[in-house]
Amino acid sequence: MTQTDDEPIDILEDDAPPPPAPAHGFLPIETNWFDRLFISLVIWVAICLVWLRFIEPLGADLYIAHGVSVALGLYIIWKG
Amino acid sequence: MHSNRLGWWLLAPTLLVLFLFGAVPFFYVVWLSFHQWNPFAVNPEIIYTGADNFRRLVFDSGFLASLGVTVAFVVFAVLTELIVGYLLATAFMKDFPGKAIFRTIHTLPLIMAPIIVGSIWKLMTTPSIGIIPHLLDEWIGYDLNIGQSALAAFTVTVIMDVWHWTPLVTLTLIAALVSLPADPFEQAQIDGAGKRQIFWHITLPMIAPAVVATVFIRLMDALRTVDEVLMLTGGGPGSATRYLGVHIFKEVFPKTNYGYGSAISVIVLYLTIVVCWLLYVGMLAPRTKK
Amino acid sequence: MKKGNPWLRTLFWIFISFLTLFPIYWLFVISVKPAVDLFSTPDIILKSAYWQNYVDVWTDRTLRGYMLNSLIISSGNALLCTGLGFFACYALTRFDLGGKESIFFWTITNRMAPPAVFLLPLFLLMTQVYRVGDFTLLDTRIGMILVYCTFNLPFAIWTLRPTLDGIPRELDEAAYVDGASSWKVISEVVFPLCRPGLAVTLILTWVFAWNEYLLAATLTNFNARTLTTGLSEYVTTTGTEWGIMAAISVFTLIPALIVFTMVQRHIVTGLTFGAVKG
Known about the structure:
The complex is a heterotrimer of chains A (80), B (290) and C (278).
Chain A (H helix, E strand, L loop, with lengths): L2 H11 L19 H23 L6 H18 L1
Helix pairs in contact in A: 2-3
Chain B lengths: L3 H29 L2 E2 L10 E2 L3 H6 L3 H32 L6 H9 L6 H12 L5 H10 L9 H29 L4 H8 L4 H29 L3 H6 L11 H12 L2 H32 L1
Antiparallel strand pairs in B: 1-2
Helix pairs in contact in B: 3-7, 3-9, 7-9, 9-12, 11-12
Chain C lengths: L5 H26 L3 H4 L13 H8 L1 H34 L5 H13 L2 H15 L1 E2 L2 E2 L4 H25 L3 H9 L4 H30 L2 H6 L7 H7 L8 H22 L3 H5 L7
Antiparallel strand pairs in C: 1-2
């Protein structure tokens, strides 16, 4: 389906001993899905904390922060 | 091969112990951080309060001050250790009489309990009985009082950490320097490179992985420094040396505010994980580039 | 820097060693001074030794109890961690277990966590959840032995795995072909070959447990208190018994020093958690 799903097959067909797959996302390092999930969670917490400190007192609800984080997280997992 | 069931049985006790004393506390503290719970308050029930604990935490001046001094402590301590450790490591690369003995002596602080290091430095720096305030007073008329001067207390904790952990940096960097090949250095000398150029363009890139690994380990340890500071200054004066671990120890238990205490613990854990992860990535990135 | 004369370098290192050793020497100086002499002008050279502090510590029943606790807890913990770590590493290296690399990684992450973070959940779990009837793990030796596993067991697994990896599997297979049981293979083939690695692991885990303070300070009240917590009891805001405190410190330091001479070359590998080979 996605580009990510095709990667391992390419590696399996290659005869050379595990070649580091070229970083294919926008993140500066090579990642697998678990790393990207982890990054998303870390960013989620960071966004929420910053939100609580600076934006919520202005009146914006925390749910907006969750929305932004989930969207960003999905984007990272998808494309990172 | 023989059955995997035996393998799982051999692994089971380990997993059980680490599950009960590692994973369960982790999830428990995360769960509690979203609740209000003070068993000795008017309402001793555990009540779900959403993000209220964190809402309070991000405005908690005590916590933020603690975070600030922790960052200052970690930066000063680890930087000093790196510089001193590197200089000592290069000094060890040459031959001189008694090298093995000096190396042994230099390793000595590493095996000492943090709390003992704390008590040693307390004995060294407490105004009435310590040798350091006495000498400073006699020589330059400076009155060192770690019970009153915030700067003095902070500096002494950094010096204590440097005394305790510089040997680790020295020894790891020696290991890195010993394994360097000689060719690039000879070539550079033939080409007429200066000492400084050799350091920045040849030595540093080649020992970079070891340096990053050392920083990683030292940062993790420095972030969780508690025992020695608790012994030496108890976090004071004021909150000058109230590093995050000390803050948790002093804040959570006397106040029995378990929900809020959990939130502090979770954030400290979060910050530790982020710092470790960033460094881990920093360690991996140069390797994956090739 | 110091070109030419190697003796100049030796001089430089004598100076560095002085900086390293002097604080330890000062600890000793304080420990052999009577309380009345402490506040006079500090003497760097010892003129007379006063051993009463050591006698006081040694004859104090509470402190003797703490010493015994420290000894039991660190020995029990070291044996438990080395044993469990040995079996776990045998399983990790000899069997084809699903997801074993993830399991291995997870065990190691337990070591990275700051203990301060786990004080509260461990305290609550040990008082409220992990209990059988009236028996709770709080303030018991067995409780402390188990709690120390959180940092020592990952360490044991980390250091023992290369040792077990280094033992050829053909030896196991040969013994199995000869009809030995699994237990026989582990105890009579693998174990003897692992002995040096096991000894280093045992000693280092012992020291880590012996040196631990924070968890012991929170999770014990009286019955299972260790020597390190006893030390902090002598530091109070109203007045510290400096001589006694120094003497307890020396008592705490001695086992570590003995160990130091035994495993000196392994300390760096141990403390850097194998990330850098010293």
